[in-house]
Specification:
By secondary structure, the protein is mainly alpha-helical. It has five helices and three strands; from the N terminus they run αααβββαα. A hairpin with a 4-residue loop joins β1 and β2.
């Protein structure tokens, strides 16, 4: 993880941004201590990289990284691109099937909207540069939802 942060490959990831902020405010020792403590916050997914610590919080999106997750970073690896392209094909088929239903079918409108949203996320992932955060203003799913049980 340190090599990725220092080389700039994990450039806009939350780990990299936090490391740089801590380094500026508290110095190298504190920044590297932070990095050592959060180094488990890097995972390879079928779609790229995730900078969430699964040891602290499991993925609440069940690896639906392409659904506007702030922690998702594309890898640029061919196998991840192939997985995204295959997923896009499946989502498009799902959308077409929903659109083929009669207009007054229960849930049709929601199914189409959901498919469009996921397809847009996959398209964003496919067009993003490797190492760049796809959804910098996306949702940080590692934070518990506020007010969910309050």
């Amino acid at each position: 993880m340190a090599k990725m942060v220092l080389s700039g490959f994990a450039g806009l990831s939350h780990v990299s941004e936090s490391f740089k902020r801590i380094q500026q405010e508290y110095g190298d020792d504190a920044a590297f201590t932070y990095l050592a403590a959060t180094s488990d916050g890097f995972h390879v997914t079928p779609y790229g990289f995730c900078t969430t610590s699964f040891a602290v919080n499991p993925c609440v999106r069940h690896l639906k990284c392409f659904h506007r997750c702030k922690r998702y970073v594309p890898s640029g690896l061919p196998e991840h691109r192939i997985t995204l392209e295959q997923l896009r094909g499946k989502l498009s088929a799902m959308r077409e099937k929903a659109a083929a239903k009669p207009a007054n079918s229960i849930g049709r409108k929601n199914q189409i909207a959901h498919a469009d949203e996921l397809i847009a996320g996959v398209d964003a992932a496919l067009s993003a540069q490797p190492g760049a955060v796809v959804f910098p203003n996306g949702t940080d799913y590692s934070d518990p939802e506020k007010g969910l049980f309050a």
